[in-house]
Design a protein that fits this description.
Layout lengths: L12 H22 L3 E5 L19 H4 L11 E5 L6 E5 L21 E5 L2 H8 L6 E4 L15 H10 L5 H26 L4 H12 L11 E4 L20 E6 L2 E2 L2 E2 L2 E6 L5 H17 L8 H18 L7 H6 L53 E5 L2 E3 L2 H8 L9 H5 L6 E3 L2 E5 L5 E3 H13 L1
Parallel strand pairs: 1-5, 3-4
Antiparallel strand pairs: 1-2, 2-3, 6-7, 7-10, 8-9, 11-14, 12-13, 14-15
Helix pairs in contact: 1-4, 5-6, 5-12, 7-8
Length: about 450
Amino acid sequence: MSTYLSQDNVPSPLLYAQHCQEKLTRFQTILEATGYDAIIIGSGHSKVQFQDDMPYPFFANPYFREWVPLGKRAGSFIQISSTSTKPRLFLLIIEDIWHTPPQNLPDGYGDALEVFEYSHVDELQKQLLREDQTIALLNETNDLGVSADHLNPQTVLNQIDFQRRSKTAYEQDCIRTANQIAAPAHRAAEQAFRSGASELEIAAAYLAACNCSENEMPYGIIAGVNEHAAVLHHHNLSKDTREPRSFLIDAGVACNGYAADITRTYAYDTGSDFAAMIEQLDRAQQELVALGSIGACPLELHVQSQFKIAQLLIAFNILQLSAEQAVDKGIINSFYPHGLGHHLGCNVHDKGSQLANPQGDQIPASKTHPNLRASAAMVANQVYTVEPGVYFIPALLDKLRVSDQTNSINWAELERWITYGGIRIEDNIILHSDNSLENMTRAAFLLDQDRIG
């Protein structure tokens, strides 16, 4: 596990304290730039289902989780002021005999904060609101009754999102730890697939291996067997068992609110052509990982990934034209309909990846690839995913079949691949300030392999 882990399998209090001080400096710069005296961030409140008394699972908002690893602690607030030496954390304390006690900070983390307790919003308002201060409140609801102009001001959100592109050492370690927890769970899912388990049983094996509940996942587990591997977000997991051919799992784990986001694909027959295609995509994925560097353009990296997917399809006799033609004519989009990757952090698809500056100016979308999540040049200490894929999606293939490019496809060969669904391979990467790349996912799988011998 990480060098900085405490006994509770989370980054150490010292690393967390360094994180809070670095974030405090960043946020005080934001306060100076935006003219506010303080930023108050609420964790949010639980919501009850319509016409029912059953609450939805609670998740604190990412702006709060960036500061405090209390993703399940509703009704909490953190204050960052222009003059404070520590962030101030306010925890709601109420008598409740019906539910388990609220989530607490990991041991030692409280030393980095000034921690207060409150039981009613009136107490909170007296503590947080002053007539001589201008306050920005970031929260889903206006609990404190600030002016509407100061509830989620876009100027502040832009500044925060822009600085989130560069992760502190603590944030990096949270994501590294999440990868280390997720790796053995991915192996358990593969073993369940090879034993003939249903998709739902595979997901259960994953959760058991990482010792997490479904509501602790940073996103819903995607577990597609055979044709379901072609569904990019396959969450409606089947309870039925079927003769296994292929399996795609996209699943993560969260550590202190920071996500791992990992995808692997497996062939049941390890000697099949599909297994060979997985191996070729895996090599291409590692070549794409190696292209990351400070200042690199995500659009250019995505185009490189398109060429590699086209070359793969040509090698397996599916495309009957050059890779350049497949990309230029847009044919490749029918087999690879998403981007190469995204930023990763408190949000699985983290913020700031399309901002040109802290003022919130957006980088113009590419005319050829308008839906890419990341367009800003890569920066030091960025954490991101690299996840090329190749899919055999009937809806997209049907459109291609009746297009003017239909002769570019070897349809007889393609038919036998449709039953496999598709392939995606996704790793989580840190681009360090010395321009070196750390593949947290591959390192986690190697660590798990060493553990099991």
